[in-house]
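An instance noted here:
***
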Amino acid sequence: MFANQECIYAVRPWVITNEKDTWFTKAKVTNTLYVIIKDKTNWFDGEWKEFVLKSVRATPQTEASVLGQNDKVFEYRPDLHPKTTVKQAADGLHIRAMHTQRYRETRQWPIPSW
């Protein structure tokens, strides 16, 4: 949970709490909305996924990122540019992100009891 604690602590529920397997929290002191996606499918390193949020509308200042990632580099792949993007469409806010998290040198989850 160390990568995601920012969206768990010092937050409150957003005006809409969820859309199926997608949950929303809002930071107490900033205007940051966190989206917690409980998608059960695997998301492999270097793979792009697009998520559509029907309850969220973008503003010109809207930015998106994946907690635990820097959106600048995918290790050992200088040809990839993993910047998360947002696009407002009629059916909702489209967020496109690449999985680039790296928790440990061994690429194993650091909590062995899980």
Notes: The radius of gyration is 15 Å. The first strand starts at residue 11 and ends at 19. The chain is about 0% helix and 35% strand.
